[in-house]
Predict the structure of Chaperone protein DnaJ.
Amino acid sequence: MRTRNAVAKDYYGILGVNRDASDDEIKRAYRKLARQYHPDVNPDPEAHEKFKDINAAYEVLSDDQKRQIVDLGGDPLAPGGGGAGPGGPGAGPFVGFQDIMDAFFGAAGGASRGPRPRTRPGSDAILRLELDLNETAFGVEAPITVDTAVVCTTCSGAGTAAGTHLATCEACGGRGEVQSIQRTFLGQVVSSRPCTVCQGYGTVIPSPCPTCAGDGRVRTRRSLTVKIPAGVEDGMRIRLAQQGEVGPGGGTAGDLYVEIHERPHDVYSRKGDDLHCRVTVPMTAAALGTRLTIKTLDSEEPVDVKPGTQPGATLRLRARGVPHLRGTGRGDLYVHLDVRTPTKLDADQERILRDFAKTRGEEVAELSKQGGFFSRMRDAFNGHA
Ligand SMILES: [Zn+2]
Ligand SMILES: [Zn+2]
């Protein structure tokens, strides 16, 4: 935003609405005041000034972009106050005539805004980019192809064939709208509809550019490289300014948003900047302790499993997760240990385990002998848990 050069007008105060007023509240406040101060109703010269202020406030607050400028402390109607888009001066008339009509007769369809500019800003575009965890974690320069509208190079956006020019629409005399007169309690009221000959532009293209048929832009496929910073997350959007759709008449391009989609990883699941993985260790290793080598995203780390490790135990490897997108440092890697119980024991192994159980006072009934196994097991373990 620009620096504030003058005290911004209190547009909210003029309409008597709160700063968080909804579009509806703003419209209602405007209609009420417009009915009160319209020059046809209220001949007081002060009322005339007031009516102008009300219209200006409504023009600003009913337009999201202008309202945002106000909320940032600026004044979109001040000379050089920022916010004049690529449409430039004259991009829109003052408050639409229809809004004033609405103030008296209630909302009706078909708002009329005078000639509309042929050159208008383009819309934003969004593109989905699939990345692997290594790429979201450490960043990548990803090639992308974008299908968007770009400026027609034949006519440079003008829409006219070489050597020709726009012509004023004869049907509406360049106004972009045709008017009819109604008699109302306010006196004669002029209402208008967009001109159908020029679609409201006020101008016609006698010889359209053969490449773009007068639109000033053509669709094309472009290749770009987008720099993905380290630490991005699934669902985040990266904005590439003015890489979106070029507008009609070669208007300023909108932005391109690249939305990150992270492919699921075979080993790691991600929660924020932390990573989680599961490692299975044999029962004996869990009991006796062991040293594992854990593959992290970018290294191999020796990790000690302490003797007596229980199923579900978690080891935390600090700063082995995903680098933080903002600031320095990284998340952690959590290794969840699954303890595997042997499933097939040969005779020797079974004997050893039974002897082991005996030394622990944990004898169990042989399953083959059946009969109240669960109750006996409960008894056997009572007091040894
Ligand atoms: Zn063209
Ligand atoms: Zn026309």
